[in-house]
TrEMBL record:
Belongs to the pirin family. It comes from Leekyejoonella antrihumi. Fe cation binds at H81, H83, H125, E127. Residues 203-310 form the Pirin C-terminal domain. The keyword Iron applies. One of its GO terms (molecular function) is metal ion binding. This is Pirin family protein. Keywords: Iron, Metal-binding. Pfam families: Pirin, Pirin_C. Residues 43-147 form the Pirin N-terminal domain. Binds 1 Fe cation per subunit.
Length: 324
């Protein structure tokens, strides 16, 4: 799991140790993601399955895509599909994915890159592996997160942010035992490059065996930790957690995670996606690729899609067209 790393973590800015009066957030729930398939048949773990929407707010959905080693001819993506009313955040840890949409947007993302797509008022979208990867096979691992938009911004014009791996903010825990990559929002005064409509923070942390990470966290944000690989514990209660599990936290000042002393050979460290945001607290109506506030708005989205008002599939494929 290379994503973004450094030769010497001790050269990075340090996250400040919590103040003595800071409270560690308690673990409210711990769930295990069921496995399934998405698009044309690539394996996913449904990270938010079984978690109440009020606990997740402002997030809607998250898939861990892979980790899978494809043989030649096996890599898969998604066909053309619509979106409206939210943002998709695709973070590639290993492998390559190409995105295109009906507005002409898109691009390629690879090891440690993120593509932030604001669907807003709506578009058609396709995600595929590039042809060279289909021919050769290879490792594929990433995350796709859906971030809700408030009612006032659901019909905002679509836009893209391509966040290159070299742009993320890199931080160290005080003792150098954990590397934190800040993709969006701000952690301990260090901002990530992602520009968000909804106030959130998103980070990928790697915690060495036996190390502990204490992250200061905004009190008005909820807090979620998803384990990409490895084993450890979360919260002041030291609840055991492992790959494919999601911890949702209660109120407090600090998110605390720790890696077990012994890890598997295939996953030598504890890798986590840490995210949270300010809840929108609006009604949510969701079906398939649309996230709106009411059933009537969902019906309008389907009608607009069927009438071609969300765009049309380009007549000619893009060079090297392939996608997730």
């Amino acid at each position: 799991m290379p994503a973004v790393t450094v030769d010497n973590i001790l050269t990075l800015p340090r996250i400040a140790a919590p103040l003595p009066q800071a409270t560690v957030r308690p673990v409210r729930s711990l769930t295990t993601a069921p496995q399934g398939y998405e698009g044309e048949g690539f394996p996913v773990r449904r990270a938010f399955a079984g978690v109440d929407m009020a606990t997740l707010d402002p997030f809607i959905h998250m898939d861990q895509m892979g980790e899978v080693e494809y043989a030649p001819g096996e890599p898969k993506g998604t066909p053309w599909h619509p979106h409206r009313g939210f943002e998709t955040v695709t973070y590639m840890i290993d492998g390559i994915m190409v995105h295109h949409d009906s507005t002409g947007g898109g691009g390629q993302i690879t090891d440690g890159d993120t593509q932030w797509m604001t669907a807003g008022s709506g578009l058609l979208h396709i995600e595929t592996p590039p042809e060279a990867l289909v021919m050769s096979g290879g490792l594929f691992h990433g995350v796709q997160l859906w971030v809700n938009l408030p009612k006032s911004q659901k019909m905002t014009p679509p836009r893209y942010q391509d966040i290159h791996r070299g742009e993320v903010a890199l931080l160290s825990s005080p003792d150098g035992g954990a590397l934190v990559r800040v993709i969006a929002g701000e952690i301990d005064g260090h901002p990530g490059p992602g520009v968000t409509h909804t106030p959130i923070a998103l980070a990928h942390a790697t915690v060495a065996p036996g190390a502990r990470l204490q992250l200061p966290w905004r009190q008005d944000f909820n807090a979620l930790v998803y384990v990409l690989s490895g084993r450890g514990s979360v919260g002041a209660e030291r609840r055991p957690i492992q790959m494919g599990q999601l911890a949702a936290f209660g109120p407090g000042d600090v998110i605390e995670v720790a890696a077990d002393d012994r890890q598997e050979n295939r996953a030598p460290s504890l890798d986590l996606l840490i995210l949270g945001g300010r809840p929108i607290r609006e009604p949510v109506a969701t079906y398939g690729p649309f996230v709106m506030n009411t059933r009537e708005e969902l019906m309008q989205a389907f009608e607009d899609f069927q009438a071609g008002r969300l765009g049309t599939i380009p007549a000619e494929p893009h060079p090297g067209h392939d996608v997730l």
